[in-house]
Design goal:
By secondary structure, the protein is of the alpha+beta class. It has ten helices and four strands, in the order βαβαββαααααααα. It has a four-stranded mixed sheet with strand order 2-1-3-4, with helices on one face. Helix 1 links the parallel strand 1 and strand 2. Helix 4 packs antiparallel against helix 5. The longest helix has 31 residues. Bound molecules: glutathione (GSH). Glutathione binds next to helix 1.
Amino acid sequence: MIELYTAPTPNGWKASVTLEELAIPYQVHTINLMKNEQKEESYLKLNPNGRIPTIVDSDEGGFAVFESGAIMIYLAEKVGRLLPRDVKGRSRVIQWVMFQMGGIGPMMGQANVFFRYFPEKIPAAISRYQNESRRLFEVLDRRLGENEWLADDYSIADIANWCWVRTYKWSGVSIDGLGNLRRWLDAMRARPGCQRGVEVPFKIPSLEGDEKAAQQFAENARKSLQR
Ligand SMILES: N[C@@H](CCC(=O)N[C@@H](CS)C(=O)NCC(=O)O)C(=O)O
């Protein structure tokens, strides 16, 4: 049994989608980011970075894992699926996981901060992060023009990148003209495990077309943002 500490965000979904796809039983503990529960001393013992997600594996004497990429690798290795064992196959998956951890996640995250949450609108910062996110989307699109999935077969690399890229509208980044990326987004969204995973810890309403709800969400995020 895995204990999952999470919130409804792209990094949290990376863990819950992986758990769903691997069919591992897990218990969810919702961390309220608005109340800064991720910075409480008891939680910092599990995750020194004070962020979500975190897992605790009770089959392994309460072993805690933080950092979403490390969590995905741990779970895939525990079950022996979604991450090949051969050196090259494993490396190809980890390369695309790292691409998400070091590129897609930070760039889209900062695009959200400057485009949605900062009260001051700094056009150079907004366009820098949106343009870099778009450039990374084009890298994914090119790769997905060569292969159905990011690595050889469906893997944690697809889950890691999808959990972020699916929120492209919130970051204000277009996917126009990226037909391979769109094909892959649709294929991911059709998977039952992906559908279940992005409803953990609870289903969040779509903010699209609901300007009031989007403003409220951004306002809450702004309050909890540490600058
Ligand atoms: N590199 C970390 C990033 C985790 C992260 O930034 N989590 C966000 C939610 S997506 C969070 O906990 N934010 C609350 C905070 O910054 O205090 C990972 O991939 O696990």
